[in-house]
Amino acid sequence: MYYVQKTIEISAAHNLMLSYESKCEVLHGHNWIIVVYCKSETLNSDGMVTDFTHIKRIVKDTFDHKYINDILDVNPSAENIAKWICDHVQNCYKVSVQESEGNIAIYEK
Length: 109
Hints:
Number of helices: 2
Number of strands: 4
Strand content: 35-45%
Shape: elongated
Low-confidence stretches: none
Strand order of the largest sheet: 1-2-3-4
Structural class: alpha+beta
Mean pLDDT: 97
Distance between the termini: 16 Å
Helix content: 10-25%
Radius of gyration: 15 Å
Largest sheet: 4 strands, antiparallel
């Protein structure tokens, strides 16, 4: 099995719709640190699992300097962001999304 890991930092804003009162319901931003994990039993014709540039492009083009509520059709929690990325990156099986130091959400297929 071959594995690759790509770490990307983005800046983006969101606000959460919650069932309880929270300051996170107010528009705010983070410098997110996203780690994308991909795997494959075989390499593609270029000798790669997934090109690092393709991973970066999907994440940066979609989320960097954006309002995440306009992108996701679910509550834009770190957990839902992680799942969206995992669903859209080829060969991805796991994504961690750090919205601030010590606050990390992980989605794994």
